[in-house]
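SAM-dependent methyltransferase
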Amino acid sequence: MIDIGHLFVCPLCREGLTSSGDGYACTSCHRHFGKANGVWDFRVEPAAAEPPLYSDPFFRRHRECLAQLHAQHYGENSMSGQLEDRFKQVARKLMETEPDFVGDIGCGTGGAFSTFGPPSRMIGVDQDIKLLEVAARRYPEATLVCCDLLRSPLRQGAFPALICLCCLEHVYWLEDSLAVMHDLLAPGGRLYVMIPTEGGLAWSTARNLFTLSVNAKISGMTNDQYRHVMRIEHCNNFEAVNSALFKFFEIERFNFWPMGIGGHHLNLIGLYSLKRRTSQMMALASKS
Ligand SMILES: [Zn+2]
């Protein structure tokens, strides 16, 4: 288990934490942060406002069915679940070092912990407490943190490695979130990213063939209504994520998978090993 005392700060005033009972307290505002059901709770009130797009009635209905959709995706014989496992094994090859610990941004139920871990070296970060509680039951030795990334307790410059897998395509506040990940990396640290080639031919075809009608049915929608939901759920296509990454990070390595060639139309995922840009380089990149 990782000692989070020196890796975390108060999400409100960014001051250090000190041990307090079975949790931590801010050395400045004295706010207490504890652990329940295996998950550190660093959520702060008021919760950040949701993007207006999320009030879409079909999107809300989709969200209400998330537990069933997850069960379908991670169930036995699920094509999409097996494919995701394969993606993670491919992504693991990006990481050539053995960092002391790895922050998993948007970790969900901890699906990448054993591939990138051991789980005892993983710090899983997500804003969905229910998914984190599942992760805690699966991997009690992992460190799990519930927070909004834009008001996170993670200390700047503290992480030798971060992973963010099949997540950035969902992130509404994409550049703000990438700026946070940039600042979290220690000198020489790496961010490993995997994104589906959302918006490309291969990915659209795979969705239409394998998941669209099953998931539409679970959510009680027509295929067209569910396509509309997916447009909201995956608000950033491949090109958008690719451009945003370039503003904050130097691309050390990039691969498409499985074809390698043919760009985002012929592949299912893009994989990145990223180094943080210096502030000066960031200013240049965002102007170019
Ligand atoms: Zn504080």
